[in-house]
Here is the input.
Amino acid sequence: MDATNKKKIVNDPVHGFINIQHPIVFDLIEHPYFQRLRNIKQLGLTYLVYPGANHNRFQHALGSLHLMSEAISVLRSKGHCISEEESEAVSIAILLHDIGHGPFSHSLEYSIAKDISHETIGRCFIHWLNMEMGGRLKMAIEVFEGDYPKKFLHQLVSSQLDMDRLDYLRRDSFFSGVTEGTIGVERIIKMLNVVDDQLVVEAKGIYSVEKFLIARRLMYWQVYLHKTVVVAEQILIKMLQRARELVRDEKDLFATPSLRFFLKNDVSEKDFLVPSIKHEPSEALSHFANLDDTDLMIAAKMWCQHQDIVLSKLAEMIVNRKLLKIELSGKPFEIEKLNVIRHQVLHKFPFFDKNIDYFVFTDSVSNNAYSSQDDTIKILYNNGDLVDIAIASDILNTKALSTEVKKYFLCYPK
Here is the structure.
């Protein structure tokens, strides 16, 4: 019999002491699938701009777990019935919400496993953890997927005011040093309530929610979509793209076995789901479970010396932070300007020739802070009225917050 004390306390720099309240949650934290999150940066390559942004997905998951525990306590104190089994299930759901992230988090989304989101891969991980644990994650999966009868539990995990967003805004602000992202997490959670199986915020918390939405918008353009972060991520994606081309042309290339698997093979969602003959996790899922930031950075350091000039240049840019220049615009760049820059680059670097698209390219990024089409944030007034924050707020420019803002970028050698 395992006599291990599983009700641990973790000291977190953002929230203070975090209590692990459920033994199964401790077991999940100890699992290799979850431990790999220690080596996956929360903000990808953002540390190239904000040196302090070296925090990881492991820390974020524990922080989200802590906020979930606080939210459950608040809702229980207001008379809402949440059983211990439900508390355990929603805690598991929030703990594992990011378990499908690959190296550098969102930076390489759809690049390691092409066209497969981290949510899809996360479901595959949770499926196998459920099998390993004899079906004990069944309710957690229902909450995670939104299939559990109490819909507000799913909203705590995934909505426009969930525990995931509350933690990452505060955590990313803390580690990046960007104070514009600071939000009143405790105040928002204290103001949570449930009406008609819907998560709402009491009217006294409206100002905290307004600040949350403004902070989210500021953090996206100042941190998550900072132009230097954008160009660094594009270089990382193109480095992986070039490595994939070389591997498939059977060129000699260093890569860890798991990285090589994804460079060599086009995997589908089915490849992640189908078990091996021994009824173990699929080959794709097993290899993905072995991947983290380390695989990419070791490979990049080795590729700096590779004989392929395209791969070596891209790798050097990442390893030594010698990035491409980036220009931003509110409208698409003229094709004439792109052609002029291509001509200038080829004049200086004629060896790029047919591979000029690796070094001169244009694309776009977009964001909206609040979507009035999705699971909206409802404000609860003392008379029982429920009003969308977009209508209830008298200071928010809801049109600006809910309208998708798109910025076009152009990258080329300095």
The chain has a mean pLDDT of 93.
